[in-house]
Structures are given as structure tokens and as C-alpha cells.
Design brief:
By secondary structure, this protein is an alpha+beta fold. It contains 6 helices and 5 strands, in the order ααααββααβββ. The radius of gyration is 17 Å and the shape is globular. Keywords: DNA-binding, Transcription, Transcription regulation.
Length: 154
């Protein structure tokens, strides 16, 4: 897909889209916010080709959304991809997209909604920023998406 470079555009929306306008970037961020860090797990969960995922992860590291961190595997060193503050700050964008999608698009299977759960609590929230059940503020570290199609708490 041909697209324009908006990295030096005066509009902050255009500059933001230059970084996060690719749908794969937002899906990788969703998984990173849920704790996924390893290439293989991203690949399996997202059902994405290796070359596509490699390019997106590299672009996200360059943009400061993720950082590479090495870990030692059984036979060699591998990279993990850890979400940065810049990546975590996109949580409200993902929440807005999730809420919009729940309201205006039809799920392929009835009752397969995505909800926001207060991590380490046994309740869900109708708000992404303040828990509607207990009133506590919600951040990327103390809330999680519950995706019925992917199993509980993932």
C-alpha cells in the first residue's frame, strides 16, 4: 500500500497516524499491553506472517512504542519486545476503538464482546479510565481486556 510520509506534518493527528496508522501496529500494541513480549507469541496470537511482524516490530521499536530486550534461550539469545511509556500512553486510543467497535460494528458471533476488567479484582468496568465498580483509577498495569473469543483474561 502506498502512503504519504506525514512525520513532519503540522497536524498532530497526521503525525500520530504516521506512527500508529497501520492496523498491525495497534494489534501488536493490544497484545503488548496484555503482557506479550516474544515474537513467537505475537505471531501465533495475531496469526501474522513472520516478515510482516518483523517489519512492524522494528518500526515500533524505531518509533519508541516498544523497546528490545534480550533474553537467553536454550541455544541462543532472542529479543523480547517490551512496551514503553509512549506505547502504554496509546491505551486510551485502543479503548476508544474497542468501544466504538462494540457499539457500531457487528461481532461475527453473538455474545463475543470485549470488556475491560479490573486486574486482580473480580469485576468489569464500563469505563477504561476509572473502574465503574469500585471507583479506582485504571491504568495499563491494573486493567485488562477480557476477550471471550481468546479465553478469559487475555
Amino acid at each position: 500500500m502506498l502512503r504519504q510520509d506525514w512525520s513532519d506534518h503540522p497536524c498532530p493527528i497526521a503525525r500520530s497516524l504516521d506512527v500508529v496508522g497501520d492496523p498491525w501496529v495497534l494489534l501488536v500494541l493490544r497484545e503488548a499491553l496484555l503482557g506479550t513480549t516474544r515474537f513467537e507469541k505475537f505471531r501465533v496470537i495475531l496469526e501474522v506472517a513472520d516478515n510482516v511482524l518483523s517489519r512492524r516490530l522494528a518500526k515500533m521499536v524505531d518509533a519508541g512504542l516498544l523497546r528490545r530486550s534480550q533474553y537467553r534461550g536454550r541455544q541462543r539469545t532472542h529479543d523480547e519486545y517490551v512496551i514503553t511509556d509512549a506505547g502504554a500512553d496509546l491505551l486510551p486510543v485502543l479503548d476508544a476503538l474497542a468501544q466504538w467497535g462494540e457499539r457500531y460494528t457487528q461481532a461475527p458471533v453473538r455474545h463475543m464482546e470485549m470488556s475491560i476488567a479490573h486486574r486482580d479484582r473480580d469485576h468489569t468496568s464500563t469505563s477504561a479510565t476509572v473502574c465503574s465498580a469500585c471507583g479506582e483509577p485504571l491504568t495499563a498495569t491494573d486493567r485488562i481486556y477480557q476477550r471471550q473469543w481468546a479465553g478469559s483474561g487475555s
